[in-house]
Design goal:
Layout lengths: L2 H20 L7 H32 L8 H8 L1 E5 L5 E5 L4 H15 L11 H17 L11 H31 L2
Antiparallel strand pairs: 1-2
Helix pairs in contact: 1-2, 2-4, 2-5, 2-6, 5-6
Length: about 180
């Protein structure tokens, strides 16, 4: 994925989050808006992570890019490799849990840009992300109509998680900029 492909995706996902965030006070469609906001937040996060993986792979393939190990490439492609009875290599999709995917995607993009960046995994935002993941999972795989309702506290956790993620993106961007300056 190149920036000309990523930027429109990033902009659209950001617009979705903003659209639903503005409408969170709408009491008429309170739960619909809240569910849509959560979905938009996670589409935003997952869109970034997918793009980071694709960019890391592309940089590694370039002649002057930092080469990734075969294991890193397999993880970024989210595949599992095996050999069948005929000796043929087979690939199949490999689910990577969201938390691990987030940490690895960001570490990979930082590595590819030679940026000295470590994701903040110890604060309130990171904890809120863990809670928000459970909320997202419940909304995406509901077992009853009650599971489709979000409390104010749950909504706040999603907002804190989103703010944490965007703050971490900003910190990453600064570190990538610093690395680019040092490497020129």
């Amino acid at each position: 994925m190149r920036s000309e492909e990523f930027n429109p995706l990033r902009m659209r996902l950001s617009e979705d989050v903003t659209y639903f965030n503005i409408r969170l006070g709408d009491e008429t469609n309170k739960n619909i808006i809240r569910r849509s906001y959560v979905r938009a937040v996670f589409a935003f996060i997952e869109g970034y992570l997918y793009a980071f993986k694709q960019i890391s792979l592309r940089i590694s393939e370039e002649s002057e890019g930092i080469k990734l190990s075969p294991e890193e490439i397999i993880a970024l492609k989210e595949v599992e490799v095996s050999i069948d009875d005929s000796g043929n290599i087979k690939q199949r999709s490999k689910y990577i849990p969201a938390r691990k995917s987030l940490v690895f995607s960001i570490a990979s993009i930082a590595k590819q840009h030679e940026a000295d960046f470590i994701l903040d995994k110890g604060g309130q935002g990171s904890e809120a992300y863990q809670v928000a993941l459970k909320i997202r999972d419940r909304l995406m795989h509901p077992k009853s109509h009650r599971e489709l309702e979000l409390t104010d506290i749950e909504l706040e956790s999603v907002q804190v998680a989103y703010n944490w993620f965007t703050n971490e993106l900003s910190r990453l961007e600064v570190k990538i900029g610093e690395a680019a300056t040092q490497n020129t």
